[in-house]
Amino acid sequence: MKKIPDSWKKTVSSKKNAVMFLLLLGFFVGISFLSELYGTGSICLIYNTTGVPCPTCGMTRSYLGLFRGDLNSALLFHPLFFLVPVLFYAFLFQKKKLMVGLFILFLLVYIYRMIVYFPHTEPMIYQRHSLWGRIINLMGKVF
After folding, report:
1. 38-74 exposure pattern, b = at least 16 Cβ within 10 A, e = fewer
2. Could you identify which of 78, 96, 120, 129 might form a hypothetical disulfide with 58, taking C-beta atoms 3.0 to 4.6 angstroms apart as the criterion?
3. With the C-alpha atoms ordered 64, 70, 75, 80, is the resulting torsion angle positive or negative?
4. pTM of the complete model
């Protein structure tokens, strides 16, 4: 019986991981679109579940503003929208230091936006119709 080379094992393992990642991503995207269908107005899984904006909240509207030629609204919806291509580059080429730096930068900007804009300024608004919000409302009615 022939032994399978280690390089083949790594390739098969990485392909399995990629398929699992894509399936998981597809599942979450599907759940997010279903949540959006039922009235939350967002496709973000975190926002639809918790009601609290995620660190990338406003990114889609930011790019839509940029595509309309409105740089001001793009920066208002998410000031780091221009770093998304850099993030993809870092992810694809496994630039770990760059990914960590971008993660820290996104986290710091998120904290700032939560302190300054939450819960009264788009896109940093609390979603009462989120899954968590509905559970809290139901518990308030029961108890």
Report:
1. eebebbbbbbbbbbbbbbbbbbbbbbebbeeeeeeeb
2. 78
3. positive
4. 0.69
**pLDDT averaged over the chain?**
84
Q: Would you tell me how many other CB atoms lie within 10 Å of the CB of residue 126?
A: 14
In this prediction, residue 20 carries a pLDDT of: 84
pLDDT in tens, 77-94: 999 999 999 998 998 888
Considering only residues 127 and 114, tell me which one the structure prediction assigns the higher pLDDT.
Answer: 114
Cis peptide upstream of residue 123 (ω within 30 degrees of 0): yes
How many other C-beta atoms can be found within 10 angstroms of the C-beta atom of residue 127?
Answer: 21
Helix segments in the chain, DSSP class H: 6-35, 45-50, 59-67, 71-77, 84-92, 96-117, 131-142
